[in-house]
Amino acid sequence: TVSMEAATAAGYNYTWDEQPLGLFVKDIGSGTAGDGDRWWLYWLDGQHGALAADLQPMTNVSVVEWRFL
After folding, report:
1. 3-state class of 16 per DSSP?
2. Is residue 3 classed exposed, middle or buried when 0-12, 13-18 and 19+ CB atoms within 10 A define those classes?
3. DSSP bridge pairs for 68
4. Cα(16)–Cα(14) distance, rounded to whole angstroms?
């Protein structure tokens, strides 16, 4: 996905799990899902993602923001 390409370009390691509803991001850099009851969530064009990131329709001008909350 575009997010994986961006993470690689920025030098961040990442891992994910394939789930029945789509990809689940486990970690990006040093932030590991579940640590301190925080999880990786994404926003697309200012709105919380409604689908798994790999299934979310995007355009070439979409802005994706990942937050560790």
Report:
1. strand
2. buried
3. 40
4. 7
Sign of the CA dihedral running 8, 12, 13, 18: negative
Rg (CA), the chain: 12
pLDDT for 8-67, tens place per residue? 899 999 999 999 999 999 999 999 999 999 999 999 999 999 999 899 999 999 999 999
63 close to 44: Cβ distance less than 8 angstroms: yes
**C-alpha closest to that of 55 among 23, 32, 25:** 23
Cβ neighbours, 10 Å, residue 43: 13
CB atoms within 10 A of CB 23: 16
